[in-house]
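Form 12-C: Joint structure prediction
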Amino acid sequence: MNEIQSSETIAIELARAARSAARTVATATTEQKNHALEAIARRLEASQGELLEANARDLKAAQEAGLSTAMIDRLRLDQTRIAAMISGVRSVIDLPDPVGRRESMGPRPNGLEVARVRIPLGVICIIYESRPNVTVDAGVLCLKSGNAPILKGGKEAFHSNGALVRAMRAGLEDAGLPADAIQAVATSDREVIGALIRADEYVDLVIPRGGEGLIRHITTHATVPVIQHYKGVCHVFVHEAADLDMASDIAFNAKVQRPGVCNAMETLLVDETIAAWFLPKILERYNQAGVTVRADARARSVWPQAEAATEEDWDAEYLDLTVAVRVVGGLDAALDHIALHGSGHTESIVTEDQAASDRFLREATASCVMHNASTRFNDGFELGLGAEIGISTSRLHAFGPMGLEELTTRKFVVLGEGQIRS
Amino acid sequence: MNEIQSSETIAIELARAARSAARTVATATTEQKNHALEAIARRLEASQGELLEANARDLKAAQEAGLSTAMIDRLRLDQTRIAAMISGVRSVIDLPDPVGRRESMGPRPNGLEVARVRIPLGVICIIYESRPNVTVDAGVLCLKSGNAPILKGGKEAFHSNGALVRAMRAGLEDAGLPADAIQAVATSDREVIGALIRADEYVDLVIPRGGEGLIRHITTHATVPVIQHYKGVCHVFVHEAADLDMASDIAFNAKVQRPGVCNAMETLLVDETIAAWFLPKILERYNQAGVTVRADARARSVWPQAEAATEEDWDAEYLDLTVAVRVVGGLDAALDHIALHGSGHTESIVTEDQAASDRFLREATASCVMHNASTRFNDGFELGLGAEIGISTSRLHAFGPMGLEELTTRKFVVLGEGQIRS
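Section 2 - Result
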C-alpha cells in the first residue's frame, strides 16, 4: 500500500473496521471478554521491555521539545506504573458486565411481552492527552462493555501508546476476539479526527478528555454525539446550622487535598449568620497551606488580608491553590449563586439541619450533590461504579462519572405470538 | 420596545427565560404539575373558538399557498381533534412522574450513602412540522417531566400554534407556575433557531421531529445535544421455521396497515428454504393491496411479475405502498443484511425456533427487536411508556421511543457525616 491516503479514507477505514469488530464484541459472552482481559494483562506483562523502550523514545522527544517537568512526569512509565496498569486491567475482570441486563416492562394488554435489555453503544472514539495509562483504561473498559474503541492519545505519548495498543490487540487475538476491537489512530494528522467525529454512519460516540478548548472544538465540529465535560466549578456551602469543625475539614479537604482536579472546590459559600465565626477558622487554615483567598467585601470585613474577588472569580476553575469566598444571605442565596455560576459538576452543603439539606439536595442541579461530604468524592471509584471512563457535565445520556453501565444503552425486546396492529 | 432585535438576542432572551422557569418546574411537586395540566385542559376547552379561528387563518394561507390536500388535512383542527388533544392532556395526569425517583446504590466502605435520583433535563428545544397537536403533546410531556420546552412549529401552523401556546401558558399561570415554562418561537426567522441550537449555556437538548434533511441540518449546526431520528428502514425476516400464515399476516400488517410511518416495514427478508412456498402467498396479498414489489433475482424466479430491485432499494425508506423483497441464505445472512442496511429502528423475526429467535433478538441491533410481532408496535404507547415525544435511532441517551423517563436524567446524591478524602 504505497498510495497516499486521504485523511478521510484513513478515518473511514478505521471506523469501518471498528464497526465490524463491534458486532463481534457486542455479542461476546462475559467469559470471553474476561478471558481477553486476562490475555491483555499477560501481554502487557510480557511487553514490559518494549513498553519501557517506547516510553523512553517519547520521554527523549519530550525533553528535547522542552516540555514541563509536570508534563514529562505524566508521560513517564516505569515498572510500578506498568504494574498498576496491569492490576487495573485485572480489576475490570471482577466488575459486573452490564451487557444483557434485562428489565421486564411486563405484558401489554394485547399479550406482547416487553423488556429493555442493555447493549453496548458500539464504536467509541476517545480523544485524550498525555497520560499513557488512559490508553489501557479506556481500552479495557470499552472491551468489557462490548464496545470497540478508536483511541487517539496525545502525540507526546505516540510510541508508548503504540506499544500499549499492540499488546492489547495481541491479547484480543489470544482470546479469539478481533484485534480491531481496539484500534488507535496512528497519525497525528488532525483531519483524521475531524473525519472520525463526523462519521456518524460508523461511530456512535466521541469522548474527548482534556481541556475545555479541546471539548468545545470537538463539540462544534462533530455530528457524532459527544460527551461533554467542560469544567468543574464546585461549591461547598456552609449553612448556618453547620457543625463548624466538620465544615472546616470539608472545605479544607475539598480545596487542598488535590487542587488540580475537576472535583476540587473552587468557591466557598458561607452563611452570613456564621461568617464571623467560621471564616477566620477556615481562612487561617488556607493561609497556612499557601492557598490564595479571593473574597467578597463581606468576607474581607472579617478577614481583611484576603484579595478582593471580582465577578470573574465566581466562574473561575482555578485548578490550583486559590479559592473564591463569598458570604451569602442563606440557603436561597446559595442556591441562586450555584444556579448562576455552578458548572453542573459537584455541589456540597454542610449542615445539621435536615430540611435545609433536603432542599439543597433537591434544588441544586449538578451531576453530584452532597450533604456533609467533600466534593472530592465525585469520582467513579468513590461512588461505587468500579471504574470511570470520564465525567459528563452535560445531562444527556449520562450525568456525572461514567462507568461500564454508562457505556451501554437499552434496546426494547418484544416477544409476540403473531400480534399485528389494527 | 421598538428596537430591532437581532436573532441572537431573541434566542438568548427566550433561552434565559426558559432556564429560569426550568428551575421552578424542576422542583414543582407532582401535584402542582398535575394541577397545571388540568388547568391547561380547561384553558384549551375555553379557547375552542379562538383556536378554530386561528386555525382558519392558517388553513386559508395554506390553500392560497397551494399546499397539498394531505398537508392541509394534517394542519386542520376541528372539534373532534381539539377534544382528542384535551383528552391527551388529561391522560398525562395519570402517567407516573419520573422526577425524584430514587435508586439506592448502597453505602460505601467509608460510610457515604450513595443514590441516583431522576431529575429533568432542563430546557428542551423542540422543532417540528405542520401538525398543531404536537405543540400540545410536547408542551405537556415536558411539563410533566419538569422540563421547560421552547417550541418551534412549522410556519404553516403559525396562528394555530400561537393560540395553543397562549392557552397552555394561561393554564400554567392559573396553577401558579411560570408561564415561561412553555414558550414558542414567535418568528419564522431561521437564525433564531440557529442561535438556540448553539446556546449550550441555556439549552440542554434539541429534539427535531421531521425529515432526515431537517435532522441532519440541526445535527451539523448544533452544539447542544440532539436526539436523532434519521429513518426507519425496518425489516421482517421470515425464518425457515416460521409459521407461514403468521408470517404472512405480520409481513402484510407491517407494510400495509400504515405505510407512511417510520415503524412500517420497508424490506422483507425470506429464508431460501421456504421462499418457494411463502413468496407467492404474501406477494399475492401485496398485489391485491396495490403494493409495488421490488425483488431480488431469486424472489423474481418465484414471482416474475415483481420489479427488479437495485442496490438502492435495500437502503430505501419508501414510506409508501412499496416493499423491497430479498431471499437470504438463512439467519446469518439476514443478520448481515440488517447490520449493513438497517437504520437501527425496528427488526422482527418470524419463527417457531426458539434458538433462532434468541440469536436474532440478541444480535440484531435496533432500538426495538421483535419475535413474531409486527414492526408497527415500536411506539411509545404500544410498548407501555404511556406517551412518546419522539423516537431516537441514535444510541445516546435514549434508543427508541422516548417517554417521560427519557426526558429525565439522573444525578448522584451523596449523604455523609463529615467524610473527607485522604
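Section 3 - Comments
The CA atoms of residues 259 and 320 of chain B lie 5 Å apart. Chain B touches chain A through 72 residues (CB under 8 Å).
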